[in-house]
Amino acid sequence: GLTIDEFEAVRLADLEGLYQEEAAKKMSVSRQTFGNIIAAAHKKIADAIVNGKALKISKNQPVHKKRNLS
């Protein structure tokens, strides 16, 4: 299933239409980390759609700890 971070990345990039740099700042991660998160999310979503799988959103802690990027 999708982690909370993956869910949030999809919401920011795909639903809100934010660029990766802006979305990364909102999630308090680097742009590279955001890119890794969204790529993993897209792969899981594609697998679910193409192969008719259920997609579960995890209620566990985010995979990438938030940090201050001031």
Q: Can you tell me about this structure?
A:
This protein is elongated. By secondary structure, it is an all-alpha fold. The N and C termini lie far apart (32 Å). The model has no long low-confidence stretch (mean pLDDT 88). The chain contains 3 helices and no strands.
Structure annotation, total helices: 3
Query: What is the count of β-strands?
Result: 0
How far is it from the N-terminal to the C-terminal residue, by CA?
32 Å
Whole-number mean pLDDT: 88
Please summarize the sheet with the most strands.
none
**Beta-strand fraction estimate:** under 5%
The gyration radius over C-alpha positions equals: 12 Å
Secondary-structure element pattern, one letter each: HHH
Which word captures the global form? Answer: elongated
Helix content: 55-70%
Helix and strand content put the structural class at mainly alpha
Q: Which runs of at least 5 residues are low in confidence (pLDDT < 50)?
A: none
Provide keyphrases for this structure.
70 residues; mainly alpha; elongated; 3 helices
State the gist of this model.
It is built from three helices and no strands. Helices cover 59% and strands 0% of the residues. It is elongated.
